[in-house]
Design goal:
By secondary structure, the chain is an alpha+beta fold. Among the domains are: 213 residues, no CATH class; 151 residues, Hect, E3 ligase catalytic domains (Hect, E3 ligase catalytic domain fold), CATH 3.90.1750; 68 residues, Hect, E3 ligase catalytic domain, CATH 3.30.2160; 108 residues, Hect, E3 ligase catalytic domain (Hect, E3 ligase catalytic fold, 2-Layer Sandwich), CATH 3.30.2410. It contains 26 helices and 40 strands. The strands form eleven sheets. It has a five-stranded antiparallel beta sheet, with no helix packed on it. Strands 4, 5, 6, 7 and 8 form a five-stranded antiparallel beta sheet that branches. The termini are far apart. The C terminus is likely disordered. Keywords: Repeat, Transferase, Ubl conjugation pathway. This is HECT domain-containing protein. InterPro entries: HECT_dom, Hect_E3_ubiquitin_ligase, RCC1-like_dom, RCC1/BLIP-II, Reg_chr_condens, Ub-ligase/GTPase-reg. It holds the Pfam family WD40_RLD.
Length: 1000
């Protein structure tokens, strides 16, 4: 052993057989091996190799300090680690218990936790302990927040846990002066307590009464921390030393005596690959294993720098070690108070040399869940060791810290990058662990019980840092294997509730992590919540369909869904992943849901039941359509009743919004009457009267929309511009009609949807995206203008070095007008540096800037009719299908679903002839028949099943009569023909020229 500093003549304290006093560093030949030591302001304590303890007290007489003779302290237990404070000493026994030694050397055992303690550390007047399950306990004075328990606890002589560190897998605790630190597995550093000189490294001088992450040390791969009275040193895995806090004595090693409020690299040690550090009260030591040298800097007034000069030193310099150490290997260095120490091996070779820590700093292996442990559980499950296995399962699986530190991604030290953008988990390890565990039912059942009864109740809703959140990614993988064995539903609900207890900021971090998962992993985790939710609904548990468990499952899915939507322009996971396609909500249930939806609006209310319509992404398309229709009918009724009432079965209120039109002036009459109407009337059922025909009310509605939209979308109307193929329309950049027309067009589109009518609306997907507030993309331009989209993609893909040679500017032509995409710089050139900016600006102009005013007018009109919140239930492709229909024709289904009335049946000769004729029609003629029958030549989004054709005989008809149709009822009035030929001629003529009220 060798020592230097205050009163370093250890002949007086009885450690040595002989000593050599040939330099400023004293070489001591020990009577027995020293396992660990610690020095405080007024005490030095040693643990000998037999686990016994010796203490030397430093006293002051007549202004001089001296060390009294080392005395053994007789204890009935063996000590494995210790730490000295100002005057008190904390001991750690081999059994993991903590003993407190007061200034009079009186021991007392502290009760800390049912788990064994693995580390202890002392500041001047406070102490810290770390348990095997990574709980941190503190006790002592709290004048500067050094206990980390908050502002309201000035002093606590009873060890109390720091809840904010709950769940974080910790490697080390340390303390010094009035500050404390904890270090996580992944190198996150948390400090609390006194910070008047910046000793917490947080960039300011404000004390902290609870653990705060030292952000400046993120990603630095910190592996060890040491504290002085008002300064701190940290060591990284790469051997770099950073210091911060008080520099009054030069103890930061930055060639200055100034304080540092943030961690700063000790430049003089750069490249030396330091393997150990130790802080005394006002000095610092650093050990370089490769050269067997110790460097010191800071206060040297008591010789604690070991350089023979009692002066302060602000840069690291080698300690003047005695010659006796030349053939010895230094094992450990220690600093405390105004003393410094080192331990050497007895021989030239060391059996196991520490790379960065002392035995007392222990990196005692905290229990983790790995394949080796699981193999042991499985092999011993049926043996007499089962009780011991259950105890170990409880120890590991009841601790969030243990599980959070169990599956780290150590490839290229990736877990050291844990942050908001990285969880640090290796999901292959997680999956393999639980998959292996599932092979033994008893083991899996015990894990399930421990997680449910012990882990979840102990979770803290606002852990400091990020590592405490890993548990919420790990547990769904456990749920997956449980659900495969048809168990774990209640645990799933409990975990959902635990997630929702998280502080909103922590929930946002978890959302970021969800979106960083591989899509395959994310889909499986979504499947966990859906499976339990679907199980509750399909099992007939109607009473449970509104309870908190269901609500929590919906809310978790809601958070994942919103995170997915906000993850970028293109969601990571398709929206269909969230949908419970297999479950069909019945209309009566949805009617109840509609009432709750209005009652609770979109606000979270304590005690509110599960409202499925607040989470439309779980509803399948038919359920969305049903809810929209229920909401529509209820709104129609609400126009006559001040209360929002939904009673099943629904019935439509008798009061209509009426349009009285003339065929010759269809658009003019429609626009005029819409302009003059009270907007609240739009929410009534629509009835169309034509040419003063008062006998019929609603029979003309479908034909009205058919012909009106044909005229509005025709090029002659000049309301829209068209793509090169004239197949798709878009809002013009240059107005050719009044702006109000777009408001009225929006009203008409809203009326069509509101009244359940499919319309002719040849607009691209970009239209439906914008209506739902979803960003457009290059894919949308490809649909509208493939040539232009190809050109823009060509620019993006063009080699960067050649883009400047394209001779292009930000000036483009759109809708016949030249436009500057960058109004700040006329004639701005397109270069390799700004080509993406150019393309993005072009797309933004086409779909947003150029149509901003007219589209806003359209939206204003559309949502005067339809409830915006309910329309947003639909995805863009769904809304397009609901409004415009699809072209997935299945004529056989039409035939199978046809109903025959009166004298007709499926075997009637006229009906048999009709279907033979129908099958011989061309595809276009069949579409024309659909238009003739329903007023629309497209299929409802839910398919041909939604069309139920009824066939009756046409009263008082002859062979000269044509078939007729009532489009609102899909009713075909078919005359009795005496031959197939006649039927064929009359049918083709009818569908070609005879369209509802438009016939001559």
């Amino acid at each position: 052993m060798f020592s230097w500093g205050e009163d370093s003549d250890f002949m007086r304290i009885g450690l040595d057989k002989s000593t050599a006093d040939i330099s400023c560093v004293k070489w001591i030949k020990l009577k027995s091996k020293i396992l660990d030591l610690s020095a405080g302001k007024s005490a030095v304590a040693f643990i000998r190799n037999d686990g016994s303890l010796s203490i030397a007290r430093i006293q002051e007489e007549n202004g001089k300090r001296f060390t009294r003779k080392l005395k053994p302290l007789k204890l009935k237990v063996k000590i494995q680690a210790l730490s000295c404070g100002d005057s008190h000493i904390v001991l750690l026994t081999k059994e993991g218990r903590v003993i407190m030694i007061d200034s009079d050397n009186s021991p007392r055992t502290l009760k800390i936790s049912c788990n064994r303690v693995t580390q202890v550390a002392c500041g001047d007047q406070h102490s810290v302990a770390l348990t095997q399950d990574c709980q941190v306990f503190t006790w002592g004075h709290n004048t500067s927040g050094q206990l980390g328990l908050g502002l309201d606890i000035p002093t606590s002589m009873t060890p109390e846990p720091i809840k904010t560190l709950s769940g974080i897998p910790l490697d080390q605790i340390t303390a010094g002066g009035d500050q404390s630190f904890a270090l996580s597995h992944s190198g996150a550093v948390f400090g609390w307590g006194k910070n008047t000189t910046g000793q917490l490294g947080l960039g300011d001088t404000t004390n902290r009464h609870g653990p705060t992450q030292v952000d400046c040390l993120n990603l630095k791969k910190t592996v060890f921390i040491s504290c002085g009275e008002e300064h701190t040193a940290v060591l990284t895995k790469g051997g770099v030393v950073l210091t911060f806090g008080s520099g009054h004595f030069g103890q930061l090693g930055h060639n200055t005596f100034e304080d540092e409020l943030q961690p700063r690299v000790v430049g003089e040690l750069w490249g030396a690959k330091v393997t150990q550090i130790a802080c005394g009260r006002h000095h610092t030591l650093a050990f370089v294993q490769s050269s067997n040298k110790i460097y010191s800097f800071g206060c040297g007034e008591q010789g604690q720098l070991g350089n023979g000069v009692n002066l302060n030193q602000s840069v690291p310099r080698p300690v003047h070690l005695p010659d006796q150490i030349n053939n010895k290997l230094i094992e450990h260095i220690y600093a405390g108070g105004n003393n410094s120490f080192g331990l050497c091996t007895l021989g030239q070779e060391s059996e196991e040399r520490s790379s960065s820590v002392r035995p007392s700093d222990g990196k005692v292996a905290n229990k983790v869940l790995d394949e080796e442990i699981i193999d042991k559980w499985i092999s011993e499950c049926d043996s007499k060791s089962w009780k011991k296995v259950k105890k170990e399962i409880t120890q590991i699986c009841s601790s969030a810290s243990c599980l959070n530190g169990s599956f780290l991604d150590k490839r290229c030290d990736k877990h050291y990058q844990t942050s908001r953008g990285l969880s640090g988990l290796d999901f292959s390890l997680v999956r393999n662990a639980f998959r292996k565990m599932s092979k033994k039912e008893d083991v899996l059942a015990e894990v399930e019980t421990v997680v449910q009864d012990k882990l979840l109740p102990a979770l803290f809703e606002e852990p400091v840092g990020f590592e405490g959140l890993r548990i919420y990614l790990v547990l769904p993988e456990l749920l997956r294997v449980l659900l495969k064995q048809h168990r774990g539903a209640h645990l799933t609900e409990a975990i959902a509730a635990a997630i929702l207890k998280l502080h909103p900021k922590k929930l946002q971090v978890l959302g970021d992590w969800w979106m960083l998962l591989k899509p395959s992993v994310m889909r499986k985790q979504i499947g966990v919540w859906k499976k339990v939710l679907s199980g509750i609904l399909t099992s007939g548990q109607i009473l449970r369909s509104r309870d908190n468990g269901v609500k929590h499952l919906l809310q978790v899915l809601g958070h994942i869904y919103r995170a997915n939507q906000q993850s970028g322009k293109t969601p990571n996971i398709p929206d269909s992943t969230f949908c419970m396609e297999e479950f069909q909500f019945n209309p009566e249930f949805l009617a109840q849901d509609a009432v709750l939806y209005v009652q609770f609006s979109k606000q979270d209310v304590d005690g509110m039941p599960a409202v499925f319509s607040r989470y439309p992404f779980v509803l399948n398309l038919q359920s969305k359509i049903n809810f929209f229709n229920i909401n529509t009918i209820s709104t129609m009724n609400h126009q006559n009743n001040q209360q929002y009432i939904v009673k099943w079965p629904l019935s439509i209120a008798p009061t209509y919004f009426e349009l009285r039109l003339k065929r010759a002036s269809l658009i003019e009459d429609t626009f005029q009457q819409l302009s003059q109407a009270n907007h609240s009337a739009f929410k009534r059922p629509l009835a169309v009267y034509f040419d003063e025909d008062l006998k019929l009310t609603n029979v003309y509605t479908r034909d009205f929309f058919l012909h009106l939209f044909d005229e509005l979308l025709a090029p002659e109307s000049e309301m829209f511009m068209y793509n090169d193929t004239k197949t798709l329309a878009w809002f013009p950049a240059k107005l050719r009609v009044e702006e109000e027309h777009y408001f009225l067009f929006g009203v008409l589109c809203g009326l069509a949807l509101y009244n359940n009518n499919i319309i002719h609306l040849p607009l691209p997907m970009a239209f439906f995206k914008k209506l739902l507030g979803i960003n457009t993309s290059m894919e949308d331009l490809k649909e509208f203008s493939p040539v232009l989209a190809g050109s823009l993609q060509y620019i993006l893909d063009y080699p960067d070095d050649d883009v400047e040679n394209m001779d292009m500017t930000f000036s483009v032509t759109w809708d016949g007008e030249e436009v500057e995409l960058d109004t700040r710089e006329t004639g701005k050139l397109v270069t390799s540096a700004n080509k993406k900016e150019f393309v993005d600006a072009y797309l933004n102009y086409i779909f947003n800037k150029s149509v901003e005013k007219v589209f806003e007018e359209f939206k204003r009109g559309f949502f005067e009719v339809c409830d915006k919140d309910v329309v947003e239930f639909f995805q863009p492709e769904e809304l397009r299908g609901v409004m415009v229909g699809k072209e997935n024709y299945n004529w056989e289904t039409l035939k199978q679903n046809t109903v025959y009335e009166g004298e007709y049946s499926d075997e009637h000769p006229n009906i048999v002839a009709f279907w033979e004729v129908f099958e011989e029609l061309t595809e276009d003629q069949k579409k024309a028949f659909l238009l003739f029958l329903t007023g629309c030549d497209r299929v409802p989004i839910m398919g041909m099943d939604m069309i139920r054709m009824r066939v009756q005989t046409l009263p008082n008809s002859s062979q000269k009569h044509f078939p007729e149709a009532l489009t609102c009822h899909s009713l075909l009035l078919l005359p009795l023909y005496n031959s197939k030929k006649t039927l064929q001629t009359r049918l083709i003529e009818a569908v070609s020229h005879n369209r509802g009220f438009w016939k001559d």
